[in-house]
Amino acid sequence: MKKLQFKKDINASAEKVYNTMLGIDTIDTYQQWTAEFNPTSTYEGNWEKGSKIYFVGTDKDGKKGGMVSEIVDNIPFEFVSIRHNGILDGENEITKGPEIEKWAGSLENYSFHERNGITTITIDCDVADDYLDYFNSTWDKALNKLKEISEK
Q1: Which domain holds residue 13?
Q2: What is the mean pLDDT of the chain?
């Protein structure tokens, strides 16, 4: 597993970027920027510390799948930490097995730093070797989309 980091400066307050990113005011904003990862991307659950949350989408056959995760920490407008514990296969949670063990317990951390009305968002994430190319190319697109909708 490798650690990756991505940063983006956004001309908006940390509160606006945080709310847009997490879909606090409307889940639509979360779905817009995460569509870069999967056009049907959404979440089920909430962002409260200690909560279970599913990051889900559907495949080309309409089957639901995604990540079974936990909100490790959430300090509004400053920091969010997510631990990925397994996958969702339809309605079934899978948290054990060789595929899961490659990345179980991996973290995705979001830091928001505002200065003079510009928020720098930093994403630090653990990525399984199989997904390095995908995340290296897709995160930049997703952050550009987040920037676009946060600056509206």
Answers
A1: 2-150
A2: 95
Classify strands 52-58 and 118-127 as parallel, antiparallel or unpaired. Answer: unpaired
Angle, CA of 42, 128 and 22, to the nearest 5°: 25
Matching residue, tokens 């830091």: 111
Total tally of structural domains belonging to the chain: 1
Burial of 113 (0-12, 13-18, 19+ CB in 10 A): middle
pTM over 0.70: yes
Residues 41-76: pLDDT tens digits?
999 999 999 999 999 999 888 899 999 999 999 999
Kind plus residue range of the DSSP H or E element containing 151:
none
CATH number at residue 24: 3.30.530.20
Assign 3-class secondary structure to 62-83.
CCEEEEEEEEEEEECCCEEEEE
